[in-house]
Amino acid sequence: MTDAVVALLAVAVTKATPLTLGALSGVFSERSGVVNIAIEGIMLSAAFFGFIAAAQTGSLAVGLAAALVTGALMALLHAVLSVRFRVDQIISGTVINILAVGLTGFFNRQLFATGAPAGQSILPQVPLPLLQDLPILGPILFRHQPLTLLAIVLVFVSHWVLFRTRWGLRTRAVGEHPLAADTAGIDVARMRYANVVLGGLLAGLGGAYFTLESVPHFEPLMTNGRGFIALAAMIFGKWTPLGAWGAALLFGVTEALPVALQIQGFNVPYQLVGMLPYILTIVVVAGAIGRANAPAALGVPYVKS
Question: Topology of 3-115+122-286 in CATH?
Answer without folding.
Answer: ABC transporter involved in vitamin B12 uptake, BtuC (1.10.3470)
